[in-house]
């Protein structure tokens, strides 16, 4: 006998199962490609660039492009402190600019902050770049951990801590370099020089920190430290649990012993009271002996 509806349902279930398996396979391949690209880019550039620092670099380049478009390739600016206020001073023909028409602005002005110029803009960009970089490193290291059959949890945490530390320090060095270059008041440096100098400093610091990590095995040492710290914490938790359990057993035994002695005392007190207050007849009537 043929059951068309049952056969159709089975065919649909098989199709859905194949589609789900294909989606899982595609996600796995995609994750592997991302992990391989991340490792390959880091190895090729000597640690100067990887998939976590790439979004930050592209973001900085985009901001630099917008600034160059506004003030021109030869556009120059510097920061200057006057009466407790920090100003960003632009050189060149202001009439050729679309937004920054003035010659100087407060560093807190939305116009200069929007173009990534001045200490306030550098602070804001540094915070947002740090969030982007840390998020990317955590995601990439977790993906690497999932795709690996040999990596352990303490190695995962060591990789996250090391990558985030190297990336953050390198990015901070680039931001500091940009602030120092823009803060030179003797001459007004070209905007392209400030942007390129900051990027170069950040990449060089990243390479140096990566080489230090490789030379001294900081990642492996941190992983070992996390491993033994985890073992020590687990051992401490186990010992604490044993102490708590022993204390619980001892307390329960003491409570049981107290209840037993209390019941015995009350029983004896009850018999004494009945003997003295009720007399021997009542006593023998209640506590008959067979």
Spatial strand order of the main sheet: 3-2-1-4
Poorly predicted spans:
185-189
DSSP E strands, number: 4
Q: What gyration radius follows from the Cα positions, in whole Å?
A: 37 Å
**Secondary structure category:** alpha+beta
Overall pLDDT score: 76
Terminal CA distance reads: 83 Å
Q: What is the percent of helical residues? A: over 70%
The proportion of strand residues reads: 5-15%
What is the H-and-E element order? Answer: HHEEEHHHEHH
Overall geometry: elongated
Number of contiguous helices: 7
Largest sheet: 4 strands, antiparallel
Overview of the molecule:
- With 290 residues, this protein is an alpha+beta fold.
- α1 (4-44) packs across α4, α2 (53-71) runs antiparallel to α6 and α5 packs antiparallel against α6.
- It is built from 7 helices and 4 strands; from the N terminus they run ααβββαααβαα.
- Mean pLDDT is 76; it is low at 185-189.
- Strands 3-2-1-4 form a 4-stranded antiparallel beta sheet.
- The protein is 76% helix and 7% strand.
- The termini are far apart.
- The chain has helices spanning 4-44, 53-71, 110-114, 119-147, 153-182, 191-216, 218-286, and strands spanning 76-82, 85-91, 104-106, 189-190.
- It is elongated and about 125 Å long.
- β1 (76-82) and β2 form a beta hairpin.
């Amino acid at each position: 006998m043929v059951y068309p509806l049952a056969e159709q349902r089975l065919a649909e279930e098989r199709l859905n199962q194949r589609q789900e398996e294909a989606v899982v396979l595609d996600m796995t391949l995609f994750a592997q490609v991302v992990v391989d690209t991340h490792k390959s880019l880091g190895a090729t550039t000597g640690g100067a660039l990887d998939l976590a620092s790439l979004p930050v670099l592209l973001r900085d380049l985009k901001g630099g492009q917008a600034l160059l478009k506004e003030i021109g390739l030869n556009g120059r600016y510097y920061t200057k402190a006057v009466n407790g206020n920090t100003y960003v001073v632009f050189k060149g023909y202001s009439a050729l600019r679309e937004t920054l028409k003035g010659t100087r602005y407060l560093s807190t002005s939305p116009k200069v902050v929007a173009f990534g110029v001045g200490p306030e803009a550098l602070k804001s960009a540094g915070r947002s770049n740090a969030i982007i970089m840390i998020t990317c490193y955590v995601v990439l290291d977790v993906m690497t951990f999932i795709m690996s059959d040999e990596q352990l949890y303490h190695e995962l945490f060591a990789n996250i801590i090391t990558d985030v530390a190297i990336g953050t320090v390198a990015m901070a060095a680039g931001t500091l370099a940009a602030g120092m270059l823009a803060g030179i008041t003797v001459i007004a440096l070209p905007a392209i020089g400030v942007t390129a100098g900051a990027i170069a400093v950040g990449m060089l610091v990243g390479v140096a920190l990566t080489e230090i990590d490789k030379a001294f095995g900081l990642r492996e040492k941190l992983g070992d430290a996390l491993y033994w710290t985890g073992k020590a914490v687990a051992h401490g938790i186990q010992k604490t649990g044993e102490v708590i359990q022993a204390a619980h057993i001892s307390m329960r035994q003491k409570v049981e012993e107290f209840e037993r002695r209390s019941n015995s005392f009350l029983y004896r007190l009850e018999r004494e009271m009945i003997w003295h207050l009720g007399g021997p007849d009542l006593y023998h009537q209640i506590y008959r002996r067979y």
